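Let's sit down with a protein and look at its sequence and fold side by side. Which protein we use is up to you, so please pick one and set it down. Label the sequence line and the structure token line clearly, so we can match residues to local backbone shapes. Go ahead whenever you are ready, and we will take it from there:

***
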Amino acid sequence: MPPTSEILTAERILEATEEVLRRHGPAKATVVDVARALGVSHGSVYRHFRTKAALREAVTKRWLDRTSERLAGIVTAEDRDPEQRLRDWLAALFAAKRHKAGDDPELFATYTVLVEELGGVVREHIADLTGQLTRIVAAGMETGAFRVTDPAAAARAVFQATGRFHDPCYAREWTAAGVDEEFTAVVDLLVRGLRG
């Protein structure tokens, strides 16, 4: 067992949980496994996360939040016009999802299972992402670059139209030949539509 000299924090527990999920998968990973990895009793883990479900929800939210946080910087990048921010944001979302699926396939598969179990966490994540898109579209309306009447509706439409490039159910297609060209074609079409 690892030494327990470090203070047990929620962040340390989430990091250990991620490693346990990577090793065992969601069906076999237990709170006892997480506690063992940390060198503490499972009761210590439960002091931070009341249930196994709460721990799984927190680790999934943390995983999804990494993407949201990365994208948030693009929303506020004032050195780029709204159209470029939109293109960059969509490209960064696609790259982040593709990176997660390709670089750590075991953990990606685990999170895909967890995400299906945790509808509320997913709804919050999608609401955050479409909120970011709404801000970009609204900025485009203000500058006259985009001619839409409802930025939130337009943002939801853009998000849904690009689902093939960020929805985990399409992950197997993300490395297919020509997928980058298909992504660019979809984004170009959407941008033309927003311009009116």
